[in-house]
Automatic annotation (TrEMBL):
Gene3D superfamilies: Single helix bin
Region Disordered, annotated ranges: 1-20
One Pfam family cited in the UniProt record for this chain: Ribosomal_L32p
Family: Belongs to the bacterial ribosomal protein bL32 family.
Gene Ontology, cellular component aspect: large ribosomal subunit
UniProt keyword terms in alphabetical order: Ribonucleoprotein, Ribosomal protein
BP terms from Gene Ontology: translation
GO function terms (MF aspect): structural constituent of ribosome
Lineage: Bacteria, Pseudomonadati, Planctomycetota, Planctomycetia, Pirellulales
Taxonomic source organism: Blastopirellula retiformator
Protein name in UniProt: Large ribosomal subunit protein bL32
Length: 63
């Protein structure tokens, strides 16, 4: 079984983990009502997704 010859330095460990941080969700404005909504998500305000009405009535949008 392979064993490392030397301990990996803290700097090298940090460089490897530099891409592991969580990133904020990308927000875009809704094409129908204009509020900021995460990408690839049905708008909770008006119920549209990609200019199509997914949630038809007001009660379903509130739930």
């Amino acid at each position: 079984m392979a064993v490392p010859k030397r301990k990996q330095s803290n700097s090298r460990t940090g460089m490897r983990r530099s891409h592991d941080a969580l990133k904020a969700r990308e927000l875009q404005s809704c094409s129908n009502c204009g509020i900021a909504v995460p990408t690839h998500v049905v708008c909770p305000n008006c119920g549209t997704y990609m200019k199509r009405a997914i949630i038809k009535d007001e009660q379903a949008a509130a739930e």
